[in-house]
Specification:
There is one protein chain. The chain has one domain. Helix content is 78%, strand content 0%. It is built from 12 helices and no strands. It is globular, with a radius of gyration of 18 Å. The model has no long low-confidence stretch (mean pLDDT 89).
């Protein structure tokens, strides 16, 4: 039965992650400010999480919990801010597959910090991801585009955040992880908003975009909760490899909704990247 619930949670995570990106991109295309989109996401998520406060108790006396929660909140807010900035000008069918570089970063961190050497699986995975990227990008120079750089920054903070989320869940619960991610994410995303935006020059979003903001926040909230649920019952590495399935959906949605080009080529490249990412996250040691 638990396996069934895990599969459902993974499916929710995959679909809500992709559609959250779609709605954020639509908002950015309508002129909404990425850092404000990020703040509104967490604000709505905090509102959604308020009723859950009546069903759980905050561990006020657990210092370790608050340290990991704060670290995760900062990483989450920064990650989603960079993601919103990337989506403003970037293609969904490109930014989605680039997320698989998270597997390579994890391997590199283990080499630098733990002095681990990649085995045949790790080397094979890296080669496949790099080779798959050839089909995604028009030119190797595109890797240095600003939107892709923002996406890379986002995935770095996302990978670090995943570790902190797992730790918070082990110290509390899935529900508590969602609640604390919501409120701390809102606080830190507000600070980011204040740093990047001059309040005197800022214009509030138009009412016509309200439904898009709500849909974005709803998908973002479901994605956050389902991610925490999966982390509760699965190894983070295995979970991240399954989450990569969203890159296929991103390529399809980019083609269907934003008329992004080279659909077949990008889809083929995404499949190669997906295989490489799975090999690293599941088999590499």
């Amino acid at each position: 039965m638990q396996i069934f619930f895990n599969i459902i949670a993974i499916c929710f995570r995959i679909f809500t992650n992709s559609f959250s990106n779609v709605f954020q991109k639509q908002l950015a295309c309508r002129g909404e400010v990425p850092v404000y989109i990020n703040f509104i996401n967490y604000t709505f998520m905090s509102i959604f999480s308020v009723p859950l406060l009546f069903f759980t108790d905050l561990p006020f006396d657990n210092i370790q919990f608050w340290i990991y929660a704060a670290a995760g909140g900062i990483c989450g807010a920064v990650c989603n801010c960079f993601m919103a900035m990337a989506l403003k000008d970037g293609e969904l069918s490109v930014l989605g597959p680039i997320n698989s570089y998270k597997a390579i970063l994890g391997l590199l961190f283990s080499m630098i910090i733990l002095h681990e050497k990649p085995d045949i699986y790790g080397a094979t995975g890296i080669i496949l991801i790099i080779y798959g990227t050839y089909f995604i990008l028009e030119s190797p120079k595109d890797f240095f585009r600003q939107d892709i750089q923002y996406r890379i920054y986002a995935l770095i903070f996302s990978a670090i955040e995943a570790v902190f989320i797992k730790k918070v869940i082990l110290l509390s619960s899935v529900t508590m992880s969602f609640i604390i991610s919501s409120f701390l994410g809102m606080i830190f995303s507000y600070f980011i908003f204040k740093i990047f935006i001059n309040t005197n020059d800022f214009k509030f979003p138009v009412k016509e975009n309200a439904i898009l903001y709500f849909l974005t926040a709803l998908c973002f909230s479901v994605m956050t909760f389902s991610t925490a649920y999966v982390f509760k019952y699965m190894n983070v590495g295995y979970a991240l490899s399954l989450f990569q399935l969203s890159i296929i959906l991103n390529v399809v949605l980019g083609y269907k909704l934003f008329r992004e080009k080279n659909f077949v080529k990008k889809l083929f490249g995404s499949l190669i990247i997906l295989i490489g990412s799975a090999i690293i996250l599941i088999f590499a040691h």
